[in-house]
């Protein structure tokens, strides 16, 4: 196995030198300016890109790297330049060169699905490449079988659109028009995609100029010493502050993706063994299920797991002393010195073989966060948040009342998990600054009436700290149209931790007022008739801690606010409430509550699990769940 | 508080800040200007306000009769939002939307993975005080279901029983048809006559239910605070002064009468920074640098604002505290470094400057009764860049304490730095922070800062801004006269203003000219009526039309000027052309000729035009200005540096850096290699003497 630092990689790896002392003032200026350059590139993209996925859902990432392809900033995850450097030696690069790629199997594990076209720009100082700037956005369409390039039942990459291995897109400032023409010809929205690419390329070039100024101002030796100090700080925070919260030992757990759009119903297992020894952690995914015939595969076994480590490691920030401290910890390449990854042999969900489809790899990608959090919860006596699932795509398309085609696509969040210090958040989305559609916008633009925009009562997993609630959104179709859904956690709820219960799963119900029918999570155009209501219910977060220990006053407040029903207050929390005389509110019946809580405690089965997966899991294991039926 | 402009010749601006209340008085007959400061009285800001008026009258030897108008910038609304516990608010929404505030826009603040540990703040109204009422309109304002008045009555009785004093009403699509909200207000008043009500159709008649609801609730919350405050002012002013016209600054950059403010008090949130930006805009024009970035460095933070063609940029996507408030306001960005920013060592052993601040209390270490951690002001003092006493000798500073604080900090850092090296480094870090913030702001707005000047004001700006200017490669740094009082000056430089808006979404191919004409006519009628009520003479009235336009399908509009005059086919062509042009300028591209647009909001602003105060010209003088000398630290060593009193600088004076210019309330540092010239209005203009050598590009 080659780890991240192996000298065998086809790109330069950092020499192992003793740490150099750096001027604390220059260090602070360099670090502040790197963060600013990252933000400046983001602002430039946000201002000039056109895809709604970039502009509204904020689905784009920027990264700054040193010449060893090490990520220097840590506000978000990003792609990696390794594949570019692998295919183009740095000494052959020229100022004004721009590289482009999106091929999920040829990007060293850094690009997960084809809509994420990624631009890479080298930074020069005195004629040599000293750093890289990179940006990718989730573009609206890169061809393939369906609009949006995310076919829910794809079995090969050929159905998912145009794959671009690392190529030189601009040579010394001159765009390769042949490449540009091919890309434009292979998307349903050529102008929009072309403009997005232009926006990303120009923003990266601007960032590269800014980075070069830093080298010019302070000199290469000083700037590179600052880079090393920035990486070392991140490494040391993990080693000194977070790892000591986990006792040395081996911890094992598994979680599942429960559908892949092709073989349904079926549990797809992700297995993880975490070995903590001193100041190192090994993540071993041996035991993970074979790759899926559907599009949920994630090609992660490249570059020693450099992308995977940076993707999952931030989960450990939850071990920080306080949530405020957790928010201060930025995760850069320094974290790769703390982790090793063991991948199973080729042919599993995270080591798929070309040409397995990957467009819904976010199911596996997101599950890996919860998988690590679940393992660490066991290693850290439950001092970790319960599970959350906050990304899914829902929408409608058809012809509006003026005879014009319409497509309404929305990313709806869900409830986040309870934490030892707070309840989970209601209806949030993991991507920072992503926004939902106002109902008044939806109704103005599309032949839809939002009859209800609410939180779903009882969806948050019960716990001492309750899981956040998911959406309960009702759309009435005003014309005949079709609905589309790409969603996970449709049978397994988000798990609860340390005695907390799982939240309720995602569900789409059609014809709510007539003959209601559940559609499942991968829906490619189910017909909806004018007047029918489609109800979208998103996942509640898992609960944290024993619900019988939740302060009765908080349960009372939840009932008054409609977040928890009277029945659930009684059955899940053991809190007896009686309505006030005025009918405005409820009061706690203290005596009945004590009795009820004692009774519930006595009735519990002896063994208590650190993790609660909810009803869906048991039913699936027992084979009680059937495949969804669709009318198409 | 009277309405029409009075007979006197003095215009007095009063800007209430956290520590000081600044007063500026302009004599319209001579153009002369006088400034002073009094200590603020936070428990009742009206006391300092009146003290300040009397103080400046005393200094000018004038009487109350000589006053033409009083203009006031207040942070009452902002402070109420930031400092008070928000309680006692209720919300009425359309059935099905009870969780509107809790869901918000589902956003988590920046930082990937923060959704795990971020804790959503309490909502402005807890869910138990959100009540649903039956009835529904569609986006055109057509009634789908009639208002269920019984449910309104039940809600009103509930709020009355619960002692909820202020209620916001936000019903779906009320911007398209206000009937349900108006009827709701009538029913609520029948049941609960003494409650404070704010209707979303009055506060923000524009689509996006969440933002409209929050804006309406903020307005409802501010109302009682503002009402009490204006009553206090009336009491404190006394019978004579309250006869004088009294104007209050709004965030949009116009002034309004107290009556107008009370109808929509939210319009005054953030009026403090707005006054500073407007004062800067006037200076921009006078100094001949119409494009500039303003930098207002105070004790705890620095406000940045972009001014293009001598007009400050406005936005309607701003925030007050943690609340999104979609009313027009000047586009001011606040960053967390000011004179009181603390230099400290992080848990990882790194040197940091800000955002923690010693503020006014306890203040920098060198202040009397100052704090125990060194600040930017302490660093400036140690380097000799600011004098050992501030406010014309009013505050004596302790160099010893500042040195001790920095010595202690230096001992904990690697590299055996001297106190001066550390002090210079702290200022260098703060300068880079400001430069990076300016870059981010200009990039977000599609502007090249290299083509702009930097205008520096506020107590702690001009000691550093000339260095920031060079870091940015900007054209020049300018420092206006009385940089500590520019906000109060701005109050005297702005027009009376009233804003009116209505949402009516119209696709480019389905434009209905009579409907647009009717909307503008109605908005213009409202604007004129408001101005008339405030005693503005018709000759001084101006109306400006604007519209929010977007490409069909986008969810973000651009506000563009709309032609005046007849609303015909030509009007539409000009409006849409203006939109394409604005889109290109703002976002770097447009779809002219490719994509259809939608008109979304129609807006009218009414202005009561006020004569701008003039700034008197300085006499020229052939004699070299007198100076004292002081040792000041630059680039690693102390240098004997001339120190000038600003009042002694005549028009046309030229100074080579290093040099220090001192005045009441502020100190300007001219760095080695820079040159300062004094223009005919006394504005200091600082340039890199050899721009290509000094700039970092």
| Overall geometry of chain A | globular
What's the overall geometry of chain B?
A: globular
Strand content of chain B: 25-35%
Which structural class is indicated by helix and strand composition of chain B?
A: alpha+beta
Cα-based radius of gyration of chain B, to the nearest Å: 27 Å
Question: First CA to last CA of chain A: what distance?
Answer: 47 Å
Structure description:
- The complex is a heterodimer of chains A (632) and B (697).
- With 632 residues, chain A is an alpha+beta fold.
- Helix content of chain A is 27%, strand content 20%.
- Chain A has helices at 24-48, 52-55, 82-87, 177-185, 190-218, 220-242, 306-312, 323-328, 362-379, 439-445, 552-560, 566-571, 590-603, 615-621; strands at residues 60-66, 98-101, 118-125, 128-137, 167-171, 174-175, 249-257, 268-277, 280-284, 339-342, 393-399, 405-411, 448-455, 471-477, 481-486, 496-497, 507-510, 517-518, 522-528, 533-537, 577-579, 586-588, 611-612.
- In chain A, the strands form six sheets. Chain A has a six-stranded antiparallel beta sheet. In chain A, strands 13-14-20-17-18 form a five-stranded antiparallel beta sheet. A four-stranded mixed beta sheet of chain A has the order 7-8-9-10, with helices on one face.
- In chain B, strand 7 and strand 8 (143-145) form a beta hairpin.
- Chain B has 697 residues and is of the alpha+beta class.
- Chain B contains 17 helices and 37 strands.
- In chain B, strands 13, 14, 15, 20, 25, 26, 33, 36 and 37 form a nine-stranded mixed beta sheet that branches. A six-stranded mixed beta sheet of chain B has the order 3-2-1-4-11-12. Chain B has a four-stranded parallel beta sheet with strand order 6-5-9-10, with helices on both faces.
- In chain B, helix 10 (376-382) packs across helix 11 (399-411).
- The relative contact order of chain B is 0.10.
- In chain B, 31% of the residues lie in helices and 27% in strands.
- The interface between A and B is large, with 91 and 74 residues.
């Amino acid at each position: 196995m080659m780890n991240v630092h192996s000298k065998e990689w086809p790109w330069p790896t950092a020499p192992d030198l003793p740490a150099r002392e750096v001027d604390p003032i220059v260090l602070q200026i360099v670090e502040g300016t790197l963060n600013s350059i990252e933000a400046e590139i983001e602002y430039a993209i946000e201002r000039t890109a056109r895809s709604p996925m970039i502009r509204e859902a904020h689905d784009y990432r920027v990264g700054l790297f040193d010449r060893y392809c090490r990520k220097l900033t840590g506000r978000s995850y990003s792609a990696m330049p390794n594949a570019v450097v692998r295919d183009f030696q740095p000494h052959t690069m020229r100022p004004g060169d721009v590289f482009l790629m999106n091929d999920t199997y040829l990007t060293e594990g850094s690009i997960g699905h084809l809509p994420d076209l990624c631009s890479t720009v080298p930074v020069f100082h005195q004629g040599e490449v000293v750093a890289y700037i990179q940006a990718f956005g989730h573009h609206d369409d890169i061809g393939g079988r369906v609009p949006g390039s995310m076919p829910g039942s794809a079995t090969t990459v050929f159905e998912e659109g145009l794959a671009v291995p690392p190529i030189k897109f601009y040579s010394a400032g001159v765009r390769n028009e042949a490449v540009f023409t091919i890309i434009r010809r292979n998307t349903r929205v050529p102008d929009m995609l072309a403009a997005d690419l232009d926006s990303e390329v120009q923003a990266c070039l601007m960032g590269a100029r800014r980075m070069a100024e830093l080298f010019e101002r302070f000199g290469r030796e000083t700037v590179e010493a600052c880079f090393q100090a920035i990486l070392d700080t991140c490494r040391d925070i993990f080693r000194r502050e977070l790892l000591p919260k986990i006792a040395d030992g081996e911890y094992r757990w598994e979680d599942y993706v429960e559908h892949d759009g092709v073989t349904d119903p079926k549990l797809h297992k992700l297995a993880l063994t975490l070995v903590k020894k001193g100041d190192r952690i090994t993540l071993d995914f041996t035991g993970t299920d074979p790759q899926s015939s559907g599009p949920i595969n994630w090609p992660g076994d490249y570059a020693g797991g450099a992308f995977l480590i940076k993707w999952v490691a931030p989960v450990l920030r939850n071990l920080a002393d306080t949530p405020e401290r957790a928010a201060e910890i930025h995760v850069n390449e320094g974290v790769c010195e703390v982790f090793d990854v063991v991948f199973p042999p080729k042919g599993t969900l995270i080591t798929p073989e070309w040409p397995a489809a990957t467009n819904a790899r976010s199911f596996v990608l997101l599950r890996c966060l919860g998988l690590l959090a679940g393992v660490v919860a066991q290693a850290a006596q439950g001092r970790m948040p319960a599970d959350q699932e906050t990304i899914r795509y829902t929408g409608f398309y058809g012809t509006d009342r003026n005879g014009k085609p319409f497509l309404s696509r929305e990313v709806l969040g869900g409830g986040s998990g309870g934490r030892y210090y707070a309840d989970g958040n209601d209806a949030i989305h993991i991507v920072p600054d992503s926004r939902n559609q106002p109902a008044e916008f939806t109704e103005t633009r599309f032949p839809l009436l939002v009859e209800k925009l609410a939180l779903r009562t009882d969806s948050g997993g019960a716990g001492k700290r309750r899981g956040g609630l998911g959406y309960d959104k009702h759309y009435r179709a005003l014309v005949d149209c079709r609905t589309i859904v790409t969603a996970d956690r449709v049978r397994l709820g988000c798990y609860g931790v340390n005695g907390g219960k799982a939240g309720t799963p995602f569900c789409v119900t059609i014809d709510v007022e007539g003959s209601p029918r559940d559609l499942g999570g991968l829906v490619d155009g189910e017909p909806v008739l004018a007047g029918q209501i489609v109800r979208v219910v998103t996942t509640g977060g898992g609960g944290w801690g024993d619900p019988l220990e939740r302060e009765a006053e908080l349960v009372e407040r939840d009932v008054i606010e409609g977040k928890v029903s009277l029945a659930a207050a009684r059955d899940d929390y053991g809190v007896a409430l009686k309505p006030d005389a005025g009918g405005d509110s409820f009061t706690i019946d203290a005596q009945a509550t004590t009795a009820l809580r004692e009774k519930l405690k006595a009735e519990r089965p002896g063994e208590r699990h650190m993790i609660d997966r909810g009803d869906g899991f048991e039913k699936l294991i027992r084979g009680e769940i059937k495949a969804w039926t669709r009318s198409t | 508080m009277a309405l029409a402009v009075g007979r006197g010749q003095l215009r007095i601006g009063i800007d209430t800040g956290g520590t000081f209340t600044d007063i500026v008085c302009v004599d319209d007959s001579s153009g002369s200007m006088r400034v002073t400061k009094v200590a603020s009285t936070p428990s009742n800001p009206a006391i300092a306000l009146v003290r300040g008026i009397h103080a400046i009258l005393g200094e000018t030897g004038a009487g109350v009769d000589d006053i033409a108008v009083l203009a006031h910038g207040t942070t009452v609304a902002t402070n109420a939002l930031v400092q008070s516990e928000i309680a006692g608010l209720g919300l009425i929404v359309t059935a099905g939307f009870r969780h509107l505030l809790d869901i918000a826009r589902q956003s988590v603040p920046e930082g990937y993975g923060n959704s795990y540990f971020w804790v959503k703040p309490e909502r402005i109204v807890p869910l138990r005080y959100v009540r649903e009422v039956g009835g529904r309109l569609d986006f055109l304002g057509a009634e789908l279901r009639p208002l269920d008045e019984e449910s309104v009555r039940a809600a009103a009785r509930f709020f009355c029983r619960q002692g909820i004093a202020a209620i916001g009403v936000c019903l779906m699509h009320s911007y398209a048809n206000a009937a349900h909200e108006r009827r709701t207000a009538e029913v609520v008043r029948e049941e609960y006559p003494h409650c404070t009500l704010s209707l979303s159709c009055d506060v923000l008649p524009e689509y996006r239910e969440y933002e409209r609801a929050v804006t309406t609730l903020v307005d409802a919350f501010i109302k009682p605070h503002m009402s009490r405050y204006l009553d206090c002012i009336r009491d404190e002013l006394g019978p004579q002064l309250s006869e004088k016209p009294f104007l209050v600054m709004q965030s949009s950059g116009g002034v309004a009468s107290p009556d107008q403010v009370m109808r929509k008090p939210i319009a005054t949130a953030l009026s403090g920074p707005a006054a500073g930006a407007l004062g800067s805009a006037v200076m921009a024009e006078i100094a001949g640098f119409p494009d500039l970035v303003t930098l207002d460095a105070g004790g705890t933070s620095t406000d940045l604002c972009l001014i293009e063609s001598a007009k400050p940029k406005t936005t309607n996507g701003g925030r007050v505290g943690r609340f999104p408030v979609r009313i027009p306001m000047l586009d001011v960005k606040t960053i967390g470094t000011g004179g009181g920013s603390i230099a400290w060592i992080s848990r990882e052993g790194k040197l940091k400057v800000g955002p923690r601040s010693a503020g006014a209390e306890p203040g920098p270490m060198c202040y009397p009764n100052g704090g125990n951690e060194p600040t930017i002001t302490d660093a400036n003092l140690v380097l000799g860049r600011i004098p050992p006493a501030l406010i014309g000798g009013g505050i004596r500073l302790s160099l010893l304490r500042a040195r001790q604080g920095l010595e202690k900090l230096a001992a904990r850092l690697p590299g055996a730095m001297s106190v001066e090296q550390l002090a210079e480094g702290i200022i260098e870090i703060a300068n880079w922070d400001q430069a990076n913030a300016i870059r981010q702001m200009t990039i977000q707005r599609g502007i090249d800062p290299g083509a702009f000047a930097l205008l520096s004001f506020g107590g702690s700006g001009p000691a550093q801004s000339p260095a920031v200017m060079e870091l940015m490669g900007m054209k020049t740094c300018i420092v206006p006269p009385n940089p500590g009082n520019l906000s109060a000056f701005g109050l005297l430089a702005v027009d009376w203003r009233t804003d009116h808006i209505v949402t009516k979404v119209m696709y480019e191919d389905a434009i209905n000219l009579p409907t647009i004409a009717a909307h503008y006519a109605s908005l213009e009628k409202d604007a004129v009526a408001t101005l008339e009520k405030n005693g503005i003479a018709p000759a001084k009235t101006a109306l400006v039309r604007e519209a929010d336009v977007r490409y069909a399908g986008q969810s973000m509009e651009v506000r563009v000027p709309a032609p005046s005059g007849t609303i015909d086919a030509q009007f539409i062509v000009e409006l849409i052309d203006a939109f394409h042009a604005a889109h290109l300028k703002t976002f770097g591209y447009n779809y002219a000729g490719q994509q259809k647009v939608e008109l979304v909001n129609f807006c009218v602003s009414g202005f009561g035009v006020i004569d701008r105060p003039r700034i008197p010209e300085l006499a020229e003088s052939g004699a070299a200005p007198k100076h004292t000398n002081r040792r000041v630290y630059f680039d690693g060593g102390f240098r004997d540096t001339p120190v000038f009193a600003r009042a002694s600088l005549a028009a046309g004076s030229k100074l080579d850096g290093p040099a220090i210019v001192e005045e009441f309330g502020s100190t300007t540092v001219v760095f080695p290699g820079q040159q300062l010239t004094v223009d005919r209005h006394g504005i200091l203009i600082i340039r890199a003497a050899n721009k290509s050598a000094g700039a970092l590009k």
